[in-house]
Amino acid sequence: TQYLFIYIYIYIYILCGICSDRWEAYVKGVQDYSSLYGSRDFSEKVRRETTLHPPLQCPDMGPSPTIPTSVEKVKAADVKIVAALGDSITTAIGANASNVFQLVNEYRQLSWSIGGYGTFADVITLPNILKLFNPDLVGGAKNKTRHKKPHTLNETGFNLAVTGANSYEFPAQARNLIHTLKTYPGINFAEDWKLVTIFIGANDLCDYCKNKTLFSADSFIFNLTVTLDMLYKELPRAIINMVQLIHLEELRVVNDGSFGCWLQRSFCSCLVKPAKNSTELQELLDQNNQFQVNLEYLIGSGRYDEKNDFAVVLQPFLKTANAPRDENGTIDYSYFTLDCFHFTVKGHEQLAKGLWNNMFQPEGAKVEIQSLSNPIQLICPPVVGPYI
């Protein structure tokens, strides 16, 4: 009954055309910002192409002798298709912006979970790591897009995330993914192993104070349940990386007083505006905790454990992560774009490494990183049992 009420409420909310003005306010803020800084160059925010990563060498980088039929026996090289769903963290908005005007660019090709630009030497993303094991991997995003502008799969690959997405929009992303994979040329939908990374929920918390029913922890987990149920029923041979939500409170301290940091107030006002120790802030933080608890309960419930070719794995590397800091203990803004919320390529590479390592760490021993600024050394799949 509770979930039925939530479903009806969400339907009415969408039907009435009521939606958050968060991203319109963000774009307006970028325009105001540009009037102050114009085309000023912030080259320190950009990934230098001359910086190359040394190769990752592992004892076993080959596929299984035959295509595995069990989800518990899938090696990195067995993955044929990579995809991602989510919001602006996955579209990588502003990630390689060198000036204010570029903040509304979606650098999908550099995204931590689905970027397919260049090679591992150029930029560390999950697909670029996987391409070391299977060079024929399909799905990595190849180019940047612009928010709310038309784009094609040639640019996005299977990065089907939507900037600004709330969880109530998430089932539509899953439906789009299923349709895309069914109709994409050269894919064996039934036989190819797929790795799908999901990261969603921050925008619900950023909007929580605007509608405490629509953006509650209960609504969030309902929307995730609908999404995962759909994938479970209709997506064969799939491993779902469900990335645990971060504690957003840490982002309140990421503010150097610049106008760019004030952009936080346009798209995450429910987090940024409440006073320290206020009841409004505590209520939001309690919801943040409940988001995490609900997600852990859903994934651990066994709801998605009955099929031999499907798994949802909770990857908790961000669960307790603190804001990155330098050797002096001050916030390291090199990990953040000019809006002091989204990640630069430097930040995205840390996310990619944390996710990869979690994928090969057993349940109960998955590492939760303490800070994005702490060095993360990529691990190799175990010699014994080298499975995702």
TrEMBL record:
| Entry keyword set | Cell membrane, Glycoprotein, Hydrolase, Lipid metabolism, Membrane, Phospholipid metabolism, Repeat, Signal, Transmembrane, Transmembrane helix
What membrane topology is given? Single-pass type I membrane protein
Q: What is its EC number?
A: 3.1.1.3, 3.1.1.4, 3.1.1.5
Could you say which enzyme class this protein belongs to? hydrolase
Where found?
Apical cell membrane
Report a single Gene Ontology molecular function: phospholipase A2 activity
Catalyzed reactions: 1,2-dihexadecanoyl-sn-glycero-3-phosphocholine + 2 H2O = sn-glycerol 3-phosphocholine + 2 hexadecanoate + 2 H(+); a 1-acyl-sn-glycero-3-phosphocholine + H2O = sn-glycerol 3-phosphocholine + a fatty acid + H(+); 1-hexadecanoyl-2-(9Z,12Z-octadecadienoyl)-sn-glycero-3-phosphocholine + H2O = (9Z,12Z)-octadecadienoate + 1-hexadecanoyl-sn-glycero-3-phosphocholine + H(+); a triacylglycerol + H2O = a diacylglycerol + a fatty acid + H(+)
A Gene Ontology CC term for this entry? Answer: brush border membrane
* Function statement: Calcium-independent membrane-associated phospholipase that catalyzes complete diacylation of phospholipids by hydrolyzing both sn-1 and sn-2 fatty acyl chains attached to the glycerol backbone (phospholipase B activity). Has dual phospholipase and lysophospholipase activities toward diacylphospholipids. Preferentially cleaves sn-2 ester bonds over sn-1 bonds. Acts as a lipase toward glycerolipid substrates. Hydrolyzes fatty acyl chains of diacylglycerols with preference for the sn-2 position and of triacylglycerols with not positional selectivity.
Protein name, entry field: Phospholipase B1, membrane-associated
